[in-house]
Design brief:
The chain has helices spanning 3-25, 32-56, 72-75, 80-113; strands spanning 58-61, 66-69. With 127 residues, it is mainly alpha-helical. Strand 1 (58-61) and strand 2 form a beta hairpin.
Length: 127
């Protein structure tokens, strides 16, 4: 296995757990509206890291358009295509959660500045 990828994954997992703790306990009251969106972003980044560094552990073979799988999924005999699909889905979820986080931040700024309203297409009112 690639030890540096496992070390990087362990450090990222430790940093993510610290971030989760700080978001749950140390967020000021004015920032509570964005915490759930930031938690979603952090969760999907952590999931992406686990897929990339533990389950899939891809080694690219440059300049060939190919790779070698060294992860847990490949050691269990599961096709590397499953790992690639998991990786693509996790990257898509990271991108979508970042977009929704920016959308929620934009809505908060619009409501604070009273410049107008935005559509309620993606927003659920919790009042």
């Amino acid at each position: 296995m690639l030890y540096y990828m496992h070390i990087a994954s362990g450090i990222t997992l430790l940093a993510s757990s610290i971030v989760f703790y700080l978001m749950l306990t140390r967020t000021p009251q004015t920032g509570k509206a964005l915490v759930e969106h930031l938690m979603a972003v952090q969760f999907f980044i952590t999931f992406n890291d686990l897929v990339l560094c533990v389950l899939f552990c891809c080694i690219p073979l440059f300049p060939l358009p190919a790779g070698f799988c060294e992860g847990v999924l490949c050691a269990m005999g599961i096709s590397p295509h499953v790992g690639l699909v998991l990786l693509c889905f996790s990257l898509g979820y990271v991108a979508a959660s970042i977009v929704l986080c920016f959308y929620a931040k934009h809505r908060a700024v619009v409501e604070l500045t009273k410049h107008g309203s935005t559509s309620n297409f993606l927003h659920t009112n919790k009042n």
